[in-house]
Specification:
179 residues; alpha+beta; globular; Chorismate lyase
């Protein structure tokens, strides 16, 4: 059975619940790739999946999609100094796969920010934050046995929306706590 996560605005979470050195990473609107490059000697992007598929129930709800609608899904792992730090999943509804968003389909291992942050006509919605439990499909897929923090937001261009969810992996949190 699908384990739905509870997403809230960061203001609804007590910051005391977040790992101290981690809170800013959850709420920054800046490029995650650029930020990681300041912390890591080497940052790689590994494409895990890039094809048509179906969105998860909470993604359908957020994007107001029918469960049977096909979407383009891009899943990547951001690797910092040979350690997986961030899993990102982008959901692009078929109706949004035009113009600027169409380029995402062929990014391969190029950061999503190369398309989204350079264009001021693309707007980002406020973040939602969740503590993803091990029973969640993301954790199962990534073989994570502990709860992990995640955030998501939408990017909007000409009334077309895409959803970006980012899961902060245990290695990232461990390393940030050591700094």
């Amino acid at each position: 059975m699908y384990k739905r996560s509870t997403w809230h605005s960061p203001e609804r979470w007590r910051r005391s619940w977040w790992p101290a050195r981690f809170a800013d990473w959850l709420t920054t609107s800046k490029s995650m790739t650029r930020r990681m490059k300041r912390r890591c000697k080497k940052v790689n992007i590994e494409v895990l999946f890039s094809a048509w598929g179906r969105a998860l129930p909470d993604e359908c709800e957020k994007l107001q999609l029918l469960a049977r609608e096909q979407v383009f899904i891009r899943e990547i792992m951001m690797i910092c100094d040979n350690e997986p730090w961030l899993y990102a999943r982008t959901i692009i509804p078929q109706k949004a796969l035009i113009g600027k968003f169409q380029r995402i389909k062929n990014l391969n291992n190029v950061p999503l920010g190369k398309v989204l942050y350079k264009d001021t006509s693309i707007k980002r919605t406020p973040f939602e934050v969740a503590l993803i439990q091990p029973e969640n499909p993301f954790c199962k897929k990534l073989e994570i046995k502990q709860a992990v923090w995640a955030r998501r937001s939408m990017f909007i261009w000409r009334q077309k929306e895409i959803l970006l969810s980012e899961i902060f992996l245990p290695k990232m949190q461990e390393r940030l706590e050591q700094i």
